[in-house]
Amino acid sequence: MTEPSGGSTDKPRRPVVVPAIALVAITVIGITALLGGLNETPDAPDPLSEGAVLDQGLYSTKFVESRVRIEPAQNEWDEEKRFVELLFDVTNQGDATASVGLPPEKPEQAFTFTSFAGSLVKISPAFDKDAGPFTFALSKGGETRQLHPGVPSRVVVRYKLKENEQPPEKITLDVASFEFESQFNDDIPAWQMISKEVGEKHLPEIKARVTMSVKKGDAA
């Protein structure tokens, strides 16, 4: 008998060799796809420390330091007070007077804020509600809660320590930023905090995570 055209089918086949690097690449791409795609992985916020300067859009901010502030008793009926203070040099880069404001109690409450302290969306470790915060800017006339356009201001965010309470070694701030654009309900541009919808919440996008060591024992 003659063999069929094309030769015998009993001839062993050569194995196909896939380079290990290709297998690794395929695995990585598969995992990335499961996690939401190459372009959807959120960027980690910039890690900063005291002395750093951050452009927040509406504000240019220098993170000066964190310290313990001691106010001696004024008389025999008074008592010494101790505070943890966060100090910032802030310049309002907008065209209108802005507010020093207060840090939000929860991050999801911050997206409507345009005040400076409103952009400090998370402070760790957290302080008790009775501790504050107390916020103000220093001016020639004393304390103010306004930030005028183009005028650098020293801003203080202060928390009161309880008797015998030890201050934290470090404080970490999650800081948001702002953009000047049309609002969702009209075409008039205005400053607003950059945020994103997560379920039914608007969460601020964290521009930077700033860690400052707490210096101890500064008297008033």
Automatic annotation (TrEMBL):
Domain of life of the source: Bacteria
Protein's organism: Nonomuraea thailandensis
Keywords: Membrane, Transmembrane, Transmembrane helix
Membrane-crossing residue ranges in chain numbering: 16-38
The protein's name: DUF4352 domain-containing protein
